[in-house]
Structure formats: structure tokens, C-alpha cells
Amino acid sequence: MKKLTKNEKKIESSLIKGEFADVGKTEFEAIAKSLTARKRDAVLNIRVNREDLENIKRRAKEYGIRYQTFISEWFHRIAS
């Protein structure tokens, strides 16, 4: 049996506690469409100040997400 990752264990725990709610087909499709639209399909390489990057990593850790995801979300919000 495959071991669960830390994130998978957290999801499993939430499912057991009943923290997730069923959604209707329409809402599920809207969520799926939103996720598909935000697919990351381009690469960006930039140079940044080391201290700024460490601060970004710290902030991402506070939110419990990877810093690349944090930066990508930030770019998305600015672009929208």
C-alpha cells in the first residue's frame, strides 16, 4: 500500500471529519473549468534579490503552499 503524503493525510483527515461538502454538477463543472483555465503552461525565469525571495518563501510557508505556487497566484491576481 502506498504511503500518503503529508498533504494527502490532511485531506483524508478533513474528509473523515466531514469538512468537505458535496457540490452540484454545475458547480463542479465551474470549478473544473476554473482550474483548467489556470493551468500553468509557460516558464518564466527572473533574477530577484535573495532577501526578497526568502521573504516570499516565508510568506508562502505561512499559507502552507509552495513558494512557486504563491508567486504564480500573485502574478495571476496582478494580471487579472
What does this structure look like?
- The chain is about 65% helix and about 0% strand.
- With about 80 residues, it is an all-alpha fold.
- The chain has a domain at about 50-80.
- The relative contact order is 0.06.
- The model has no long low-confidence stretch (mean pLDDT about 85).
Short description:
The chain is an all-alpha fold. It has four helices and no strands.
> Strand-residue fraction?
under 5%
Number of strands: 0
Largest sheet: none
SS-based structural class?
mainly alpha
Unreliable segments of 5+ consecutive residues: none
How would you state the average pLDDT, rounded? 87
Percentage of residues assigned to helices: 55-70%
The N- and C-terminal alpha carbons lie at a distance of: 43 Å
Shape: extended
Total count of helical runs of at least 4 residues? 4
The whole-angstrom Rg is 17 Å
- H/E order of the elements? HHHH
Assembly level: single chain
